[in-house]
Each structure stands twice: as C-alpha cells, then as structure tokens.
Amino acid sequence: MYSRDGLDLKSKEIAVVVALTAMGNAQPQLKVHLHGALNTGSTINEIKEVILQMVVYSGFPNSLNSMNAFKEVLSERKEHGLNDEIGKEPSNLQSDSRLEQGEKELSKLDSSQVQRLQDAYQEFAPDLVKLTLEFGYGDIFSRDNLDKKHRQIATIAALTALGNASPQLKFHINAGLNIGLSIENIREIMLLMTVYAGFPAAINGTNALKEAVNERLKAKD
C-alpha cells in the first residue's frame, strides 16, 4: 500500500492518523503513525490541525485521546534528540463573524452547499445549520495553517473509516475533486483504508467515489 503511487507519503500518514483518531480503538497503532506523520514531512501544527478537525466528525473524546497520544509521541521524540518542525500558527481567526466565515469556507468546497444545507434544515433544525457553519467551517475549516487538500484528505479518510455517513462522505469526495484532488488520489485513500478500517469500509468508500464521479460526468453532458 505504501509503495503505490497516487498519493504521497505525507498525505497517506495524515489519512491514517485521522482514521485511527476517528475510530478511537487503536492507540498504540495511532502513536506509530503519529511518528510516521512527523517522519514524512508533517509539522507539529499540521498534525494538531487534523486531530482538531476530527472533533467535527468523531467528537471531542476521540480528539482529546489522540492529542494526548501526540503529546506522548513528541515527548518520546525529544528524549531521543528529535526536534520536529513546529509549523505555522493559524493567522486568520478574526477576519469575519463565525457565520460569515463558515459560509465562505463551505462555499469554497461547493458553491451551492450553503443553500442546500439551509433548504434541508433551516426550518426544521436551524441550530444545526448554525453550528455546522459556525463551528465546523467558521472555527475549524477556516484555519489557514493546513492546506485545503490535506483537510479534505483527512475528512474523506475519517468518514470512510467510520463508515456511517455515506451522504457526507460523498459530499466531501466531490469537494475534494472541486479543490484539486484527483480521482486517483481519492482511490488511494480508499485502498489505504482496507488496512485500517477493513475491506467493507473501503468498498463502501469506493462506491461513494464511483457514484460521485458518475454524477459529475452526467452533469457535464
């Protein structure tokens, strides 16, 4: 899996870190891949970002546990004389209101998605719309110290590993394609997930990718 082309090693390790964070059931293996993520070019702050992002998809407890594991990994590496690159801090946290920022960030992934979200839930569950935009996109996705491609790789890997949110996985596959990920990139994420989440999750993820690609092709006709 790791020798295959289609996705660079840094991206593969980010995908594995978030999958293991989201599943929350393999702490020793998570620590191995936290080391791996640092060894393949991720900065400390980039790894913190993908762990923080998992709050949206698998909750605070899993992200807290993963952040604790990361603290242990960094301590171990310092003991062995390894000084990892810290990376940049987010610089754009106060630019707009949280709601406006969230609408902007979601629209970068799909220009129609804010309207779809409002059409589906504004009348029935307006707080869900507000929290999705303000917290998920205004607070988390707007942070600029992790590029958008790696944010989408992280989200696609996590949702594939979790296996319980097919519509949301399909949206983020489309969003990934919209911002420059290739079909091959996403296909490699699915294949990588066979190792960590099992073949059923990877097959379901691949089916979501297939559906998303076919729908995009039909929309072009």
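(ticket continues) Second input and output from the same batch:
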Amino acid sequence: MSTTFTLDTSTSRANPTPAPMKRLTVPAIQRRKFEGKTQQPLVMLTAYTARQAQLLDPHCDMLLVGDSLGQVIYGLPSTLPVTLDMMIAHGAAVVRGSYHSVVLVDMPFGSYEASPQQAFASASRVMAETGCAGVKLEGGVAMAETIAFLSQRGIPVMAHIGLTPQAVNALGGYGARGKSQEEHAKIISDARAVAQAGAFSMVIEGVMEDIAIAVTDSVDVPVIGIGASAHCDGQVLVAEDMLGMFERVPRFVKRYENIAETIEKAAARYADDVRNRHFPTEDQVYRPKK
C-alpha cells in the first residue's frame, strides 16, 4: 500500500487516503517500445495543479510538470525565469493529485547546465520533495554526460531535443528546427547521444516531420512528439492549449475544447446575477431551521 492524496471536490481539500500501488513506472514506459516499435502510442499532457492532475491522470501514461507553467500559470514571457522552487511546488501538487501516471518534472533553466554535479543536486531535490518518478531536461550531445551521471545514480531522465524553449535566445525564436542538412544531422546525433547516455525516453519538439520519423526509428527508447509526427511513440501537448484556454495556439496544437469561452460565459452570468442581486439566493445562504 502507498499513501496518495484524494482531493475532496466538495471542500477543495486534499485528504491523505491509502490506495493500492497502481501507478505506472519508468520501466513500464520503456517496455512500451519493443524491438523498435510501440504498438499503442504513449499519452502525455502537462499538469500544474492537483485538481488538473486528477482530471487528466486516468487518461494519460505520463503527466509532465512542464516549465511552460511560467507562461501558462505565471504570465511570464518565456520559461527562462522559472525557478526550481516553482517546479517543486507544482510537481508536488501533481503527484498528490494523481495515482496512475508517471509524473515527470522539468528541470528549469540554470538548474542543471553548469555540471553533472549541479544537475544531480537539483534533480535529487526535485525527486525528494515532489515524489515524482523522474526529471526532464533539454539538450542533446552537450547534455549526454549529465544524463549518464543522473541515470547512473538512480534518477530517470527524459531528454528533450529539437526545438528547446530554454535555448530560445540562442535559436532566435520558436520556429521549426531541422530545415538545413546541418541541423537535421545535429538533431539525429542529439537523439542517439541522449539515448546512449541512458535517457529512458525523449521529447522531440518542433522539427520537420522526416526528422521525427528518423529519430523514432533510430533509437530504442520511446520518442514523444510535439510538433513532430504521428509516427512518434507518443504525443504530448500543453493541456491548456489542447483545452482552448488561449486565443492563439501553435500550429501543431489541436484544440479539443474551448474552455476559455466557457469560463468567460460563466463569469459573465455570475457578474450579472451579482449586479442584479440574483445571487446568492436562499439556496446559498444560512438561515435558522424552522
């Protein structure tokens, strides 16, 4: 038995309750790719809160506490200002709100690039303070030594290659990568390097489709696409993009709902009721029993 946290939606309070150990594991994710192929693609979405995790968890194999929370939750212009403390706080909430998915937490900019030792100090803190199953970090060949260092010390690592948002200033923007032969070759080399270093899986983001196909076919670990190809071993999206929380979304996003419109309409109805004294009614106030 393990202890998880169930959010009582009637009170919005998280209560610890014993639950059978049902959570997927990193080795189980790895085994989904057998002899170079994944029969059923892996499903991954971002999650940043306990309640969001509860709703997404039954449908996902992995939940990513992405540093995209900087933009999605905090309104920051990029992921660069995100801190380790922010990632840990949201990572712990997502672990508490889930029981099935493998929860992975992004390593924020500046928390791992200096050395393998710095990366281990940051990653071990993330693992200890959140209870997550592993971490994700950006970079290919340059991060191979760090990935090996972490993997050999019991920290599962998901790599991230292709368009790497933390390097947006060096890349010159968020455009698709791999349009030149040199960049094509670099991404393939990055994929092979992180796989050989011990990454249990990798995200490939914002690349020309032929590169995503080539990467998926050339490594033995699951390749999760975002703006890549349906040929990948799985897919990930920022949940808020998929749900339609923002007016503008990247080309590679498919909207499955328009939650922003639903929220706006509900807020407008609430405001109208308050201004016209139609809320609260006797159903929402406390009165002595007769």
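Agent notes: The mean pLDDT is 92. The radius of gyration is 21 Å. Closing as not reproducible unless the customer responds.
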